[in-house]
Amino acid sequence: FQYLKRFDQGCDLDAFWYEALSVEGSPVECLQLFLLHCGIVDPSWAELRNFTWFLNIQLRDCEASVFCNPDFVQDTLNGF
Question: Per the record, GO CC terms (predicted)?
Fold first, then answer.
């Protein structure tokens, strides 16, 4: 949710890192963003769960990768 929220606001996601146990927004806002970005017009709860699960794993792996660390890559992969 935090990444999607910042993406919609046009923030630089390269500089953002998720902080465990941090809470932002309301459950309604969270659901609205998931519905907007999941890519399915009328998703089931299972489809929303799969979307959030997959997105979470991808973002966690991205944060853990040295190749996605802006301090390591400098400006060579800007926006990647």
Answer: cytosol; membrane; nucleolus
